[in-house]
Design goal:
This protein is an all-alpha fold. It has helices at 11-14, 16-21, 44-62, 64-67, 85-92, 118-134, 138-167, 176-179, 182-187, 193-208, 212-223, 233-243, 246-270, 272-284, 292-298, 305-329, 336-350, 359-369, 373-398, 410-436. The protein has one domain. It holds the Pfam family GT87.
Length: 499
């Protein structure tokens, strides 16, 4: 017995962890469940919004020690794990003085201009203008700046959750893994990354809904907020090549480039020195927090910045080639979200820095690529450990004078880095397995193709590196069976041939 195409995939039936947990509340949804009317007030959209808002609000509550002085030298923002860039950049990048990003210098000789992409800078400038209007002294304006940006980030979090729900097709309840994510609460207001994450998530939703031009526009705008969304074009190229839909890819790419230029070109023309700092700063910085490059350098490996840049580029290219080979050699075409996760994960694994908020880049991609509560929670546990570890490491040398030496040692911090890297590799290994063995893919086990695929969904292959029949999957195991487990699923449907 399988759900009809009009019925949602319910976690208490589909996910082993949720099914086991549901026993305390009467067990999984039964065979005779009736889905409520579409006009019911407590529909899935409102439930997901409420869950996201509550999660984000808990994160704001966790930052409470810093509201009382931790950000301003009256306590430790590191030992309380409530650090945020926002109040510091309000004064350090000239927003307190009304300076215009990219056009005006910050007054800091080490960072003469704002080192963020244009859309992120625009959000910061908007929030800074409101903070100066509502606030009194500088301290009050800083709090207003954080409050305004927190509301913007909360709105972005809600957008991400709804976009994941819409991209997931019948699996819209998978978005609850984003809405209830501990990393969303802990990392939501460290920086402005949720702006890019939200735009990119809506771009993936647009692609899933077969609007290839709008998807390109949004990917271009997301890249104007943070660099990583441009990586999404790589998986799209590979999948469109395999499905013979390069015209659609061309439209998406052209729209992305046009949108990026519309936002960036005016600043490039009239404030080039300020505009280029983001890109030159990324190249000139050395190994930093969260990367295995930092482990190597702190353990005595002497490498110049140019050498590290070269190795980063080489390793990323090698990983990208591996992902391309996987995409073109797999017996069944991978899902868009799977390849998107793998390329962004490769970028983060090889990058010179892993700031704690970068986990937000992966959050919607992990949920779309491997929608299993157990695996998502294991990965997030690794990231929460790293979140706590990085602040305790900084506390050991940058906290209040009396607290120096009370945080993590360098060796202990290296262990924290290794844990977060292993967490990403764990999800990546599962995704690669799902691509090579689609019968293990939670999304495809009911016979569907790729709800995030858009124009690629159910399209025949026209180009692969390994010729052969496409692996076909129809109805999977009994959807309501208590015996289902990811490890024991063996396709066995009369009349179907599994290759």
């Amino acid at each position: 017995m399988m759900p009809t195409p009009s019925e949602p995939v319910l976690p208490s039936r589909d996910d082993p962890l949720i099914r086991a947990g549901s026993e305390v509340a009467g067990g999984p949804a039964g065979r005779r469940i009736r889905f409520g009317p579409s006009g019911a007030w407590w529909n899935p959209v409102r439930v997901l919004i409420l869950l996201a808002v509550v999660t984000f609000a808990l994160g704001l509550l966790q930052k409470q020690p810093c509201y009382d002085g931790g950000w301003f030298g009256q306590g430790s923002q590191y030992s309380k794990a409530c650090y945020s860039d926002m109040p510091h950049l309000f004064t350090g990048r000239g927003f307190a003085d009304g300076k215009v990003p990219y056009f005006d210098t910050t007054g800091d000789p080490n960072m003469p201009y704002l080192e963020y992409p244009v859309i992120t800078g625009g959000v910061m400038f908007f929030a800074g203008t409101l903070a100066r209007a509502f606030g009194g002294d500088t301290h009050d304006q800083q709090l207003w700046f954080v409050t305004i940006n927190s509301l913007i980030m909360m709105a972005c979090a809600v957008v991400v959750v709804l976009a994941v729900a819409r991209t997931s097709g019948r699996r819209f309840w998978d978005a609850a893994m984003v809405a209830a994510a501990p990393v969303l609460a802990l990392n939501g207001i460290i920086n402005w990354d949720l702006v890019a994450v939200a735009i990119a998530a809506v771009g993936m939703m647009a692609w899933a809904r077969r609007n290839v031009v709008l998807a390109g526009v949004l990917i271009g705008l997301a890249t104007a907020a943070k660099l990583y969304p441009v990586l999404l074009l790589g998986p799209l190229f590979l999948l469109c090549l395999r499905a013979g839909r390069l015209v659609d890819f061309g439209k998406t790419t052209a729209a992305a480039l046009a949108a990026w230029l519309v936002v960036n070109l005016p600043v490039m023309i009239f404030a080039f020195d300020g505009w280029k700092l983001f890109y030159t700063f990324s190249q000139e910085r050395g190994p930093d927090f969260g990367s295995f490059w930092l482990i190597l350098t702190q353990r005595g490996t002497n490498m110049s910045v140019d050498t590290v840049n070269t190795w980063v580029s080489v390793l990323l290219v090698l990983m990208a080639v591996g992902i391309a080979a996987l995409a073109l050699c797999a017996r069944r075409r991978p899902r868009f979200a799977q390849l998107a996760f793998l390329i962004v994960a490769a970028f983060l694994l090889t990058n010179k820095v892993y700031s704690p908020q970068y986990v937000l880049w992966l959050l919607p991609l992990v949920v779309l690529a491997r929608p299993r509560w157990r695996d998502v929670l294991i990965w997030q546990a690794c990231e929460v450990i790293y979140f706590l570890g990085v602040w305790m490491y900084i506390e050991s040398y940058a906290g209040p004078a009396g607290d120096h030496g009370k945080g993590l040692s360098q060796n202990a911090y290296h262990v924290m880095i290794a844990i977060h890297l292993l967490g990403i590799l764990y999800i990546a290994a599962l995704v690669v397995r799902d691509i090579l063995r689609p019968e293990y893919d939670p999304v495809r086990r009911d016979g569907g193709d790729d709800p995030s695929g858009g124009v690629l969904e159910d399209a025949p292959d026209v180009f692969t590196l390994i010729p052969g029949d496409r692996a076909e999957f129809g109805a999977g195991p009994d959807y309501y069976s208590d015996q289902y487990d990811d490890k024991t699923y063996v396709p066995d449907v009369p009349g179907k041939v599994y290759k």
